[in-house]
Fold Lipoprotein.
Amino acid sequence: MKRLMKLLVLSSLVAIVLTTGCNEKQKQEPAASLPQPAKAPTVVVVPEDVRRKWKAVQIAVSDKHQNQRQVYTLKVGSELKLPGSNLTLRVENFLPHFVMEGTTLTSQSNELVNPAAQIVIREDAKEIYKGWLFSLYPTTHAFQHPFYGFTLVDYLTSS
């Protein structure tokens, strides 16, 4: 009889725990579907003296399958269709002293302290990457493509 009573009490406890667990899940589900606060967009500010001085960058494109590397010179604001591929590379901005101040990306000076180029890569006209290449930190935020690698290798002034 004691054994039956223990079994009955244990069964009741298990039922209570299971019922409470289901209710907790149901209470949590609506909270998870609440909209999240919007992330503030970043803004790129290129100082006028930087815009006047720096006109182009050189980007090395590595073909991972053929173990070949080709360096292309692209003017800031220009675009290049990579030969033998369906990729297009565009240089949006160049910042010689890249810094992030809150949500603003800018250049703290015109000196080559932390050179970075903002690029856009399109595959069959579809944007697959928009981000930065850092010459001093080539693996930071590096874009991963199955066939190609991209590295910022040099920067050219207008003179």
